[in-house]
Design brief:
heterodimer, A: 114 residues, mainly beta, seven-stranded mixed sheet, four-stranded antiparallel sheet, 11 strands, B: 110 residues, globular
């Protein structure tokens, strides 16, 4: 059973470009979470999605950031017109559809904005 | 703030010693979890303790939870060099939301 798969592992973008980060949850998991981590800091919650629904996006900036989890395919975190402050590690996690909220994390995407 | 605060920020011990990390919080929680992160990798779930539990064990890990003091501790006994990592407490809030603290960096010297 493959774990949570994130790609790309590293992404380099110039200021103003778009960044697309992909996350395939573990098989059977219907809940996806995105977190952002700055160097030597903890993870900051961004968004929680279920298939075709955004459940909680309270941690996501109102502008330039969007997330989706379509019926088919991976979850996508999209950052438009990236700025240097967007440079961080972005982690995706998934959990099964039951009451126990245990998260399984991917290895993350390191975004570097030049 | 809804997130937990770990203490200490960094801990350096000799192999074989015990390591204790603490987490304090201010909000009401459903459950509390501990995760581990090796450098440059994703987090790995270690243990979950429910709000009505006071202590839980898993191998060399022992977790306590005191809801009256709003604090939890993670004890790693007989530490090994491979235990070197960052350890995070995570607060399970309502609405399926998990909020992480800033973590404790543990270094185990061999």
């Amino acid at each position: 059973n493959a774990g949570v798969m994130q790609n790309p592992r590293h992404l380099v973008r110039r200021r103003g470009q778009e960044a697309r980060l992909r996350c395939s949850p573990m098989k059977g998991h219907s809940h996806v979470y995105w977190y952002r981590q700055l160097p030597e800091e903890g993870l900051k919650f961004m968004v929680y999605l279920q298939k075709e629904n955004i459940i909680d996006e309270s941690g996501m900036p109102k502008e330039r950031f969007s997330a989706e989890f379509p019926k088919e395919g991976p979850s996508i975190l999209r950052i438009q017109q990236v700025v240097r402050g967007d440079s961080a590690a972005y982690f995706c996690a998934s959990s099964p559809p039951d009451r126990v909220m245990k998260l399984f994390f991917g290895s993350g995407t390191q975004l570097s904005v030049l | 703030s809804q997130q937990g605060e770990e203490d200490p920020q960094a801990l350096s011990i000799q192999e074989g010693e015990n390591a204790t990390m603490n987490c304090s919080y201010k909000t009401s929680i459903n459950n509390l979890q501990w995760y581990r992160q090796n450098s440059g990798r994703g987090l790995v779930h270690l243990i979950l303790i429910r709000s009505n539990e006071r202590e839980k064990h898993s191998g060399r890990l022992r977790v306590t939870l005191d809801t009256s003091k709003k604090s939890s501790s993670l004890l790693i006994t007989a530490s090994r060099a491979a235990d070197t990592a960052s350890y995070f407490c995570a607060l399970e809030l309502g609405g399926n939301k998990l909020v992480f603290g800033a973590g404790t960096i543990l270094r185990v010297k061999s």
